[in-house]
C-alpha cells in the first residue's frame, strides 16, 4: 500500500515523483513527502496502532515507504518517563522526559531517521549508504547499514569526540574524518553526492529521512494517553527534528486522532551555536550562519538547513527559542542524572537547561504539562564531564580508611 503521493517543494509547491531527490529544480526549495491523508484515515486508527509491536513502525502509514519496513525493526517507542523528582525540584506540576537515550540500537534519536532512510534506500535499490555527521548519525548509519548489508561511507569532522569515533568505527564502515567543521563536511558531501550514486541519508534521501523524526511526536501523544502536552522542548541542530515534531502533531489532528491541538513548541540551542535562537530573539526570519563553538557537538550546525522552518513552527505554535552556555549544559546534565537517573549527552543538557531558563522567564508556565526531548545517551560524550563531577572517595582496603571517608561523606550530608 502506498500512502505517499509524491514530493512537493516547500517554497513554490511544485510537485515531483518519489525519487532520491531533495531540492526543487526551479527555486532550490527543499522537497517534502506529501501523503494521502484520506487513505491513511481509513487504514490507521488508535486501535490499529495499539495492536502493533512497540517500535516506530507502528505508525508506518505516516512514514514515506511503499512496502514493508526493512531496517531498524527495533527502533523507537522509547520510554516517556514522568520526571517527578525534577518537577519537584523545579516547582512544576507535570513534567515528562521523552527518553531517547535508551531502547535504541545506537542510543540516540538518530536510530529513528536512519530506520526510515535506509528502508527507503533499499526500496530505491541503492547498495551504498552515506552521511555527513556530527556523531550520532554516523553511529546509526554505521550500525543499521551493517545489519542491512549496505556499503557505508561516513564523513565526520576530524575534531569529533574520541568516544564518538569509536562508536562508529566499531561497525567497520568507511569512516572519513574531514579537516573542517560540520558545515565543511556537509558541503563536501553535497559535491560527492552529485558525483556518486549513493544514498546520502541527510542529502538526497533527506525528504524521507527527516520524516522519521515525526515518530517522537506520535509516541509522545500515544504515551500520554492520546493527548498532546501543553509544551514540548526540542533541541535543534539543523532544525529538522523540531519541524517534524510539530508536523506529527498536526497530522494526528488532521486524522482525528487528536481532538484539539494547543501545544507550544520550544527550540533549544547552545549559545555557542544558536543561529535559530538568535533569529527568534531578533525578530527576523533570516537565519545568519555562525561558526560553532560549544561542547554540544551533536547540535553544532552553524548553517541549519531547516532553521527557517523550525523558526516558523515555533512561532506558529506560540512557543519560543532559547539558548544556554556550556556551563549551564554541564549543570543540567548533572541535574537530570541526580534527580531522574537519566544520563544524557550534551544535547539533552541543552534541552534541560533551556527549559529551566524558559521557566524562569515565564515563557513556559509552571502549571503546564511539559515534555523534554532527551535525544542522546551520556556515555557518548562523557569526556565533557572530566574534572567536573562530584568527588570520588579514594581509600585503602581497610575499615578504618573507609570510616575516615564516611566521616567526610556525612559532613557533606550526601
Ligand atoms: C541530530 C540530533 C538532534 C537534532 O537534529 P536536527 O538536525 O535538528 O534534526 C538532536 N539531538 C541529538 C542528540 C542529535 O544527534
Ligand atoms: Zn520550488
TrEMBL record:
Pyridoxal 5'-phosphate binds at residues 136, 375. Catalyzes the gamma-elimination of phosphate from L-phosphohomoserine and the beta-addition of water to produce L-threonine. This is Threonine synthase. The modification N6-(pyridoxal phosphate)lysine is found at residue 110. GO terms for molecular function: L-serine ammonia-lyase activity; threonine deaminase activity; threonine synthase activity. It holds the Pfam family NinF. It comes from the Bacteria.
Amino acid at each position: 500500500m502506498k500512502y505517499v503521493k509524491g514530493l512537493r517543494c516547500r517554497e513554490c509547491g511544485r510537485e515531483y515523483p518519489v525519487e532520491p531527490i531533495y531540492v526543487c529544480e526551479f527555486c532550490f526549495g527543499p522537497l517534502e513527502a506529501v501523503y494521502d491523508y484520506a487513505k491513511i484515515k481509513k487504514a490507521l486508527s488508535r486501535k490499529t496502532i495499539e495492536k502493533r509491536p512497540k517500535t516506530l513502525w507502528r505508525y508506518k502509514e505516516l512514514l514515506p515507504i511503499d512496502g514493508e519496513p526493512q531496517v531498524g525493526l527495533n527502533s523507537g517507542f522509547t520510554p516517556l518517563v514522568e520526571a517527578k523528582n525534577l518537577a519537584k525540584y523545579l516547582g512544576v506540576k507535570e513534567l515528562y522526559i521523552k527518553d531517547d537515550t535508551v531502547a535504541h540500537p545506537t542510543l540516540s534519536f538518530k536510530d529513528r531517521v536512519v530506520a526510515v532512510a535506509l528502508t527507503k534506500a533499499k526500496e530505491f535499490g541503492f547498495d551504498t549508504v552515506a552521511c555527513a555527521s556530527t556523531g550520532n548519525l554516523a553511529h546509526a548509519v554505521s550500525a543499521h547499514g551493517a545489519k542491512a548489508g549496505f556499503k557505508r561511507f561516513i564523513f565526520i569532522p576530524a575534531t569529533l569526540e574520541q568516544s564518538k569515533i569509536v562508536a562508529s568505527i566499531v561497525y567497520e564502515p568507511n569512516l572519513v574524518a574531514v579537516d573542517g567543521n560540520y558545515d565543511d563536511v556537509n558541503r563536501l558531501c553535497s559535491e560527492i553526492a552529485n558525483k556518486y550514486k549513493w544514498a546520502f541519508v541527510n542529502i538526497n534521501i533527506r525528504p524521507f529521512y527527516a520524516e522519521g523524526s515525526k515518530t517522537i511526536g506520535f509516541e509522545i501523544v500515544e504515551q500520554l494517553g492520546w493527548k498532546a502536552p501543553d509544551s514540548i522542548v526540542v533541541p535543534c541542530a539543523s532544525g529538522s527534528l523540531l519541524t517534524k515534531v510539530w508536523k506529527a502533531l498536526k497530522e494526528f489532528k488532521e486524522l482525528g486522532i487528536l481532538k484539539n491541538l494547543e501545544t507550544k513548541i520550544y527550540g533549544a540551542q547552545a549559545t555557542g551555536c544558536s543561529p535559530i535562537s538568535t533569529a527568534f530573539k531578533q525578530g527576523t526570519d533570516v537565519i545568519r550562519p555562525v561558526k560553532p563553538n560549544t561542547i554540544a557537538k551533536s547540535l553544532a550546525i552553524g548553517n541549519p538547513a531547516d532553521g527557517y522552518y523550525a523558526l516558523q513552527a515555533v512561532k506558529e505554535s506560540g512557543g519560543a527559542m532559547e539558548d544556554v552556555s556550556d556551563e549551564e549544559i554541564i549543570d543540567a546534565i548533572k541535574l537530570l542524572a541526580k534527580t531522574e537517573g537519566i544520563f544524557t549527552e550534551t544535547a539533552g543538557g541543552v534541552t534541560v537547561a533551556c527549559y529551566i531558563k524558559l521557566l524562569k522567564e515565564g515563557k513556559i508556565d509552571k502549571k503546564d504539562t511539559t515534555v523534554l526531548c532527551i535525544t542522546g545517551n551520556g556515555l557518548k560524550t562523557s569526556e565533557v564531564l572530566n574534572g567536573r563531577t562530584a568527588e570520588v572517595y579514594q581509600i585503602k582496603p581497610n575499615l578504618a580508611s573507609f570510616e575516615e571517608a564516611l566521616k567526610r561523606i556525612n559532613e557533606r550530608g550526601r
